[in-house]
Design goal:
Blueprint lengths: L1 H4 L3 H14 L7 E4 L3 H13 L2 H5 L1 E4 L2 H5 L18 H12 L2 H12 L11 H5 L14
Parallel strand pairs: 1-2
């Protein structure tokens, strides 16, 4: 609770902005499962610093049954009352995929990729006009 008392609204707004704008995909919703009053207070604080559209997409659920109204059981792990494999099993499967030889070779290829600068066109205009590309027309103001 001390975190909420000492929260600076400007810093909260910046942190939320980094989270929302830094995330590269469209956010359909944020669903939190908690019975804690602290989480309710934190979400209320966050909703004040985001747009109304994003605030409507933030949901706090007290029970798994409430969560199932928004997210089908078929895609939730059994840890959250769903029908999918447990979080531990899914985690181990992803570790196996990400540590496979094929994936490691792919990551090495991606990390070693560079551009061939000899193929880049030389922009003479920028050099000639001190980095001011564009169209400059004569403007007469009377």
């Amino acid at each position: 609770m001390n975190l909420l008392k000492n929260a600076n609204p400007v810093q909260v707004r910046q942190a939320v902005s980094i989270f929302i704008n830094g995330y590269g995909m469209r956010m359909k919703g944020i669903h939190l499962i908690s019975k804690s009053g602290f989480v309710d207070g934190l979400v209320m604080l966050i909703k004040q610093v985001v747009s109304a559209k994003i605030a409507d997409r933030i949901n706090v659920h007290k029970t798994f049954e409430d969560l199932h109204k928004f997210i089908p059981k078929a895609i939730l792990p059994e840890d959250y009352g769903g029908e999918e494999r447990s979080m531990k099993t899914l985690h181990e499967e992803w570790l196996d995929v990400l540590s496979s030889e094929e994936h490691l070779r792919y990551m090495e290829d991606i990390n070693s990729a560079t551009t061939n600068e000899s193929c880049r066109q030389k922009d003479q205009f920028c050099e000639q006009y001190a980095g001011m590309p564009g169209t400059f027309r004569y403007l007469s103001v009377d």
